[in-house]
Amino acid sequence: MKILVTGAGGYLGRGIVTKLLDDSVAVIATDYDTSQCDARAIRISCDLFEAEDPFEFFGKPDAVLHLAWKDGFMHNADSHMDLIPLHHRFLRKIFQSDVKKVAVMGTMHEVGFYEGSIDEDSPCHPMSLYGIAKNAVRNDCEWLAKQTGRQLQWLRGFYIVGNVPFGSSIFSKITKASLDGKDSFPFTMGLNQFDFLDYEEFCAYVAATVEQDAVDGIINICSGRPEKLADRVERFIKENGFGIQLEYGAFPDRPYDSKAVWGNDEKVRKAIEEYKKVRAGEAE
């Protein structure tokens, strides 16, 4: 299998590219800057939206994993809406090519304020520009898949736990604050409950899902269980040996953050089982 991974130089892209390569998948990694991508990949640094025929330009991949997205942690940046036409044109060209499968990274923010377990049939009423744009691209992809008969996997990501200092997640900000020598960090009350996956596990789930074909449609990349934000953050601080204290109540909760929300993990578990079958078959 040969997979084109867009946004390969980003936070998620780098980890997912490595997981795919570890499984002996041929990876074409593209981003504005691919210098931090695994050197085993074919690395192409460019603006993917400028490719007139992206399927030909990127070497006729069997599948495309579209991770590229600007300002993902800036939930109300205008860029989310401004770039929808570029994503549409790129994905339309890919769907209309000879590619066999298209996988696209989504987000639980497509759903908006919701209480309980999210599955592929949960209604979507996004409450941020990020969620609105992702939801629009999902609808677009579903329409394109029906028009072209191509397989679509919409990978709906939940909350990722990682200890890199770059990025805008709560975990990245705490990591950076600790490295900067700060001994306290302003925080909410941390009562909301979310679905968390460690970075390595998240990347492995995505790679496994894309490497199999039996499970498609909307697939939650999640743990399947909720955990209180305060508990996960305190555990994260302890796991990494950070000498930093949380200032509870310094910030209010965001109005679009659910009190308790998690993903139904039935499909991703099935995808992982199918992946294991594929790997076992290759080993034989």
Q: Mind explaining what this structure looks like?
A:
By secondary structure, the protein is of the alpha/beta class. 37% of the residues lie in helices and 21% in strands. The strands form 5 sheets. The chain has a 7-stranded parallel beta sheet, sandwiched between helices. It has a two-stranded parallel ribbon with strand order 6-15. The radius of gyration is 19 Å and the shape is globular. The chain starts with a strand and ends with a helix. The mean pLDDT is 95.
What's the layout of helices and strands?
Elements (H helix, E strand, L loop, with lengths): L1 E5 L4 H12 L3 E6 L10 E4 L8 H4 L5 E4 L12 H4 L1 H12 L5 E7 L8 E3 L10 H20 L2 E7 L1 E3 L8 H10 L4 E3 L6 E2 L1 E3 H13 L5 E5 L5 E2 H11 L5 E3 L13 E3 L2 H18 L1
Parallel strand pairs: 1-2, 1-4, 2-3, 4-5, 5-7, 6-15, 7-12, 8-11, 9-14
Antiparallel strand pairs: 10-13
Helix pairs in contact: 1-7, 4-5, 7-9
Helix content: 25-40%
Structural class: alpha/beta
- What is the typical, i.e. mean, pLDDT? 95
Largest sheet: 7 strands, parallel
Reading the helices and strands in chain order gives EHEEHEHHEEHEEHEEEHEEHEEH
Q: Using DSSP, what is the number of strands? A: 15
For the record, give the distance between the C-alpha atoms at the N and C termini, rounded to a whole number: 17 Å
The largest beta-sheet arranges its strands as 3-2-1-4-5-7-12
Q: How many individual helices? A: 9
Strand content: 15-25%
Shape: globular
Using only CA atoms, what is the Rg?
A: 19 Å
Unreliable stretches covering 5 or more consecutive residues: none
